[in-house]
Amino acid sequence: MSNVIAHRCPSCHGGSISPLESRKNDHAFVACNTCDLIFVDPMPSDDALSDFYDNYHKSAQYLSKLDSKIRRAKKRIRSVNWLKKPGTFIDVGCNVGFAVEAARLLGFDASGIDIDANAIEVAQEQFSQAKFAVQSVQDLAESGEKFDFIYCSEVIEHLPELDSFFAALVKCLSEGGVLYITTPDNGHFSLPNDFSKLVEWTSVRPPEHLMYFTKSSVAPLLKRHGLRSVKMPFSFKPTLKIIAKVKG
Ligand SMILES: [Zn+2]
Question: Does 39 fall in a domain?
């Protein structure tokens, strides 16, 4: 683990960062004084993270209640795409692939990528009619392929760095395409404001979750990557839903 304290907020790039007193799982947190993003600091090294994910094995857990997960993903995709014909769809960080299957059932040309080879193997077994690949979004962006609908659910909070990921997402978006992101909403009305209390929430779990977003702390990141017409609809649950386009 490196001991370098972040000098720049990963979302707004502001340089005014304050340490927080509360710790969890031996990790410390800091808050950006400009956009209020809370993030783990120091970030775990790439080696520490790959060791952690080598023992992650959450695919079995994700396989439970598969039918209701497919139904929920269908509802989400339909709500965003209701005026449009289904085009090309990719789920970035698709895990066992239920959102890909949901999109396929809605008539999309649907595919999913994940860096977890085990999850992709399970996804391909479960949903043999959809397309899956072990690939990072950065590598996908290099290929030049573009998509009308990019779905990225519960991924960004796991990342130690956001800019290369978002640059790649935007590069994979076709003109007029939609980006749909979800992440835990740490600013949700049902949660305490005070981090010393919020830290008890199950979604605060480093090193699995490294960044803790709110509507206001994710906004500068989206803006810097050229994402416009950003909508973050109201949700009864503490899940931040972000719908964005590059133009429009
Ligand atoms: Zn910030």
Answer: no
